[in-house]
Hints:
By secondary structure, this protein is mainly α. Helix content is about 80%, strand content about 0%.
Amino acid sequence: AIWHDSLQKKVETECTEMVKVTRLQDVGLNQSRLENTKKLLLKAKLDNQVQQVEEALTQISLRENELETQENELPVQNEIRAMSRQMPLQTLRTFVKRLQEIKGFSQITMDLRDQSLNEIKAEILQLEQISNGLTASIVNIDSKKTANEWQTTYLRNISRFEGSPLQSELDKIHETVNQIQGFLDELQEIEQYPITNFESAAEAMNKFEILKIKAQPWLRGKALQKIIDSQLQLKTQVQEKTSEAHQWLEKVQELCATNEPLYKIIQALGVKQPFLLPDDQEKLIQLKQNVKHKQEEDVVARIENDFRQIADPKLRQECLQRLQAILAETHESSSAK
């Protein structure tokens, strides 16, 4: 019994090892070894072990067919494995066409083909999504940051579109992005233009209009909205400054109406207000004339008061003479002009 069990295990081990053949050139050797074992078992009339060896020989024959198929299909398998997903889009589409032509091969080859076909199709889809994203995202460029992000994506992937119709489309869009970047630089310069009066505000607005007309053929999306917003912001800024100037004038008028000390009014009038509207400018001119007149009246009153303080008639007469001389000089000066 012990001898029989040992023989059984030895036959099982040999059959298992022989069936595991991985090279076609080893098939004949393994079959020969099993045939020799079978002969010995037949002489010993060990029918169970003989049947086991015959089953192993059958499996080797099947394995031989598999190995022959693998060897015959190896060039096709190598061709499939060589189809890299990192190739340009146009090449990937050629790969898909070739893979779809591969039919009627073993399950191993067809599984390899299906896997490669699915992976390449997924890569094509991803590249098309990148292209669509670059095309669609151009309308979202409104800053150096978003422009640089677009450029980075473009430069990282453009080689994958070489030779395909998408390459020329993306190159044209790339030119537009370069134009947008230049547009944004010019827009920033205008936005930083100092607004000190109505003239500078009008000049800045004119620069905005010229830039918008120049960029009209390709300007759209957020970049277009950005210049519109900048123009609106400038208008709002001028309106706010105009309102502030008007409020300032009303406060000065209030100072005059409430008989505030003259020096406070003069001090307030010393502030420049370049954003007064024409009507307010006329009011300011009249207000300054009124203040000047009042200031002159105060001088006359002060002179009269000081004159009355002079008790000596002779000094009074001398003072009058000096005032008349000053008046005469003033008349002469006016006539000369």
